[in-house]
Amino acid sequence: MIRKSALYTPRILEHPGLIAVHSVGIYYVCYAKQKDYLEIVTFMGNDFINTVPTVMGLLDRESLESSGIIQVQQQPYLNLNGANVLIGFVDTGIDYTLDVFRNEDGTSKIKFIYDQSIPGTPPADFPLGTEYTNEQINSALASDTPYEIVPHIDVDGHGTFLASIAAGRPVDNFIGAAPDSEIIMVKLKKTYPFYLDRFCVPVEQENAFSATSVMLGVQYILQKAEELNRPVVICVGLGSNYDSHDGYGIFSEYLYNISNNPGVCLCVAVGNETQARHHYFQQFSLAGTPETIDIMVGDNAGDIFVLVANTISDRISVSVRSPTGELVSRVTPRSGFTFSSQLVLERSQITVTYYYPLEGSGDQITIVRILDATPGIWTITAYGDIVVDGTINAWLPLTGFVSPTVEFLSSTPYNTITSPGNAPGGVHCGAYNSIRNSLYPNSSWGSTRLPLDLPDLVAPGYQVGGYYPSGYGTMDGTSVATAITSGACALMLQWGIVEGNDLGFSTPLIRAYLIRGCSRTDVMQYPNPQWGFGTLNLLQTFFYMREL
Hints:
The protein is α+β, with helices and mostly antiparallel strands. The protein has 3 domains: about 1-45, no CATH class; about 60-275 and about 420-545, CATH 3.40.50.200; about 280-410, Jelly Rolls (Sandwich).
């Protein structure tokens, strides 16, 4: 991913090894073979780290009534069910054969499926994948062999589930938050082996997606919404720990820009990382005494990716000690240079890479990769070469992207919101247990490295009912809470855009109304890092809106 305005952009576009280029707003998504890519990135200098797409994973862990959504659906003077509003998903796909995605006449409520994983006929001007239209989906549903016509399958079921609770039609005793809304589903393709290796993603992790694929998916949803002249909610139930959590970068910047468009509402999950012990925080003393970051590693943990971040005013360097005491001495900071060392008495290999100053924040990140990690306690020692602010943050990858036997010995649940949920733009959704009115234990906590009060709110995210390809079931997590919130936002877009009450409705306005309408208790102060501004209450949101 590169900005069109970057000085090195013409050199990249003229490189003979470039396979394809796709325009996404003020950015280009470029494709090249690995050997050419490694040459092209030398044109960017230190800005290289800002252009590398992170790898993202799924955030999966009576709900609608608790959120005030059923009451809004049944309110006779509102009568909102999401009619003429689109809800777009960038996820694992959708089981289009389920009754929950069919209208009363048996036709599909899915307007488009863009499957990036199937080579074929991509959407116009898009570089990959296959597009399936509502007409093709209806033809498949009328056939005895639907998958011969539309061979799209949601193997994981995550996308199907989120779509059902956000936009599912009434089936038995089930109903989605915005049952009359229509769906655009983008099935993301698994990221390339080069990035899987770079970020030490376990081989068994199938749901690893590149941020560039998500950008293409979001652009597709926006393009289709514009063609249909419909307002759209975009549900992002994905997250990543592979960045500095500073809220900057091309991907976060892109989502922020599109979230301000009238008729668009972006909903983003904040992650399920509070209990994972994947975040470390410490402050250098005034004397600048080195700080140790201890990591417990179990048997057969494989490769480990650790990201250490410090602020713009500071510079740090690191050393690494193995469980047997073998030391990789303090590595001198050189931005963009990777130091590599094969241990003598152990099979493990260590790489250390520094990047500074980062675009946007000006901060420094240090990436330590422990390949084929020996079990025991590994120690990264951070030295303060320049100490003014003195704060150090470190993150291990998202749950599922590192062995469950790997964790920081000294961890904190704060600042565990995943990217892009830690950046401006969007409605940032945490999760709570609506049965017991308690916080969902894994829902990520704020604050963030930017001075943002996050999450914005919490929505039901525990034992929420919905549909998998295999049938009815339940799911936990902030992605579920985000899907419920997306359905609520679809009802607001119907009221504002479709019914003409406020044609300027966009993410910032909807976010403000939702925050004001949240349910709160007298026993805690708001906003707070766990509950944000309170629990989603759509009916109360409309009560406050009528006072304007």
